[in-house]
Description:
By secondary structure, the protein is an alpha+beta fold. It contains 10 helices and 19 strands. An 8-stranded mixed sheet has the order 1-2-3-16-7-19-5-4, with helices on one face. The protein has a 4-stranded antiparallel sheet with strand order 11-12-10-15. It is globular and about 60 Å long.
Amino acid sequence: MPSPTSPTAFPGKRQRRRVSLNTETLVQTTPLQPDSALPLLVQPTQAELSLTDWISHHPTTITQWLHHHGGVLFRGFQVAGVEGFGEFIQAIAHPPMPYTYRSTPRTQVQGSVYTSTEYPANRAIPLHNEMAYACQWPLRIAFYCVQPAAEGGATPIADSRRILERIDPAVRSRFQQQGVLYVRNYGGGLDLPWQEVFQTEDRSEVEAYCQQAQIEFTWHDGDQLQTRQVCQAIAHHPHTREAVWFNQAHLFNINTLDPAVRANLLASVAADRVPRNTYYGNGADIPPDVLEMVHQAFTAEAILFSWQAGDVLLLDNMLATHGRQPFSGPRRVLAGMGDPWESHDLGKTVTDISCCK
């Protein structure tokens, strides 16, 4: 006699098909581009497979993919909109991170989901690792394409390990020894106000954050603030132990601005009051030719792909960089991050560095 739960127990009734989310045949993997391991393209082999359900049952596989490839592009899965992407972030980030100590404008959409950087559509965003200008950063960052742009708008990515290999050993050595000094000035209408960067209106909360993060700070007249911090230039991944180029010296440095923009900026404020700038960790200027070398290393490793609606790109934030190309037409790409990691040995005092005075 058949069991009450067996398929033959109720011969006149259609049985619900049970699907094991542990079955590897539910997805197929291929390189997105034949000459690059980054990113790995993962697609479902059956319709309406929930991305969050699948990754929740395969955390070890996701980690292995990220450590080897640096990034994974999920295409063709059911994401279920903003709410579903938020659930995805909850599943892959332990825990999700709020976007505090900001360097770019973003809007919180829902929970741990934010807009991608809100820069003008006609401007490119250079390749970078998220929050590499700080001594705490997310190990994972994800992007969800709700609507691709009509033209342009790709999110270029690059392998941080390969970028490091392209930089001259002597340059690498100096950055490794000294780190990168970030000097930021908030207020005056030229960049983000400190209230947005630190997500508070309370000066005492800003000071507490800075003290905890080993960031030196100085208040100036007109409700303006300057911060100074030395952070890593080269870091080792906490799990793979691989060395990576991990800083935003090129992104913050005034010499990477368009010459006309730089001239106008320096005509309006003193050199030590520009919104952001970078130096070697000892306060010395970073030569333009070194910045150009770094720029060329990023450019040589850049990988481009076209967004499709519903795509989710998951990156190991230390092993892979990301950016944005200019675009036209509506574009909506959301972001979320998490799995925070903190450098315990690179928060250095800058009290004796003359450029910060």
